[in-house]
Design a protein that fits this description.
Blueprint: H1 2-25, H2 30-51, H3 61-84, H4 87-94, H5 97-108, H6 115-135, H7 141-166, H8 171-193, H9 200-224, H10 229-235, H11 238-251, H12 257-285
Length: 305
């Protein structure tokens, strides 16, 4: 069941990315897309918190503020990349967060610097080159850099989430406060640009992306709560495969063999980084219940974005 919940989450996040592309193609603005990503999560989680009489006041405003700044910026950059790049390319770049974490530990991790992380960073870097080289046109490099930026900021958000988990902050509150920040940023963007969407088909696509993101978030939370964190963290890379299949079916995207190899390297380097962090945590704690950095808390508003 843990695997099935995580596969459902991956499918939903890939669908969310597809709805982002559809919404943008139909004329929705980026602030509108961001707003609709946050609304369903706010409605469901706030209603549940009120019904169960849970407090929304966080244990640490500072950690939540830093988590939201990095996570929300990552979402905006990731959605921009999704709107302007092929779906599998954009999703692959968004899932480079473990690569950035491995790079951070490689250069600043002290005792955590080891050959496995060197291999992960090198493989991930080659994977990014493999994805970008055949897939990016000359006018798409800004979107590609934003996709990479989304991955880097998602890594920072993951480390902030880990700190929130260490002080006992419940996952639902972290997601709720993040979703409130997402909605606020979307409202600010709409106030600056104005509301431009009136086509019912666009509204339907926006509702679809928000609903898919919410189901993916809940399914991921359920998966992380059922058993092996390592298995769940490994399965999250199925999102890239699902995105590639959706791109082939609905947009006719045909990744070149080099691009497929790049995706495989990004997935492999991420898995290697997750496994290495997991085994080190077990060795330090002396048990099998340790959780890898950045795992166990629903992120990838993915994102994530």
């Amino acid at each position: 069941m843990q695997s099935l919940w995580m596969l459902l989450a991956c499918a939903m996040f890939a669908m969310m990315g597809a709805f982002v592309k559809v919404s943008a193609d139909l004329g929705a603005t980026l602030p509108e897309i961001v707003l609709f990503r946050g609304i369903p999560s706010v409605l469901v989680l706030y209603g549940w918190a009120r019904y169960t009489r849970r407090t929304i006041r966080p244990s640490s405003w500072r950690l939540h503020i830093w988590r939201n700044l990095s996570g929300i910026t990552s979402m905006w950059l990731g959605f921009f990349a999704l709107a302007h790049l092929a779906l599998p390319t954009a999703v692959s770049l968004n899932y480079t967060a473990p690569l950035f974490i491995a790079g951070w530990l490689l250069f600043f991790g002290g005792a955590q610097r080891d050959p496995m992380r060197v291999l992960a960073v090198l493989a991930g870097f080659l994977g990014v080159l493999g994805v970008l080289r055949p897939s990016i046109e000359h006018d798409q490099w800004l979107a590609a850099l934003m996709g990479l930026g989304a991955g880097g900021l998602a890594a920072i958000a993951m480390m902030q989430i880990r700190q929130l988990g260490q002080i006992g902050e419940p996952e639902w509150r972290t997601v709720l406060l993040f979703s409130l920040g997402v909605c606020f940023s979307g409202v600010v963007g709409i106030a600056l640009q104005g509301w431009r969407t009136s086509d019912p088909l666009v509204l339907l696509a926006l509702i679809g992306l928000g609903s898919a993101g919410l189901v993916g978030q809940l399914a991921m939370t359920r998966a992380f709560g059922l058993g092996s964190t390592l298995l769940t963290a490994a399965l999250q890379y199925m999102t890239i495969i699902f995105a590639a299949l959706i791109g082939v079916l609905f947009w006719g995207d045909r990744p070149t063999p080099l691009a497929w190899a790049g995706m495989a390297l990004i997935i492999g380097s991420g898995l290697l980084s997750v496994w290495r962090t997991y085994t080190e945590a077990r060795a330090l704690r002396g048990d099998g219940a340790a959780r890898p950095e950045g795992a166990g808390i629903p992120t990838k508003e993915v994102n994530p974005s």
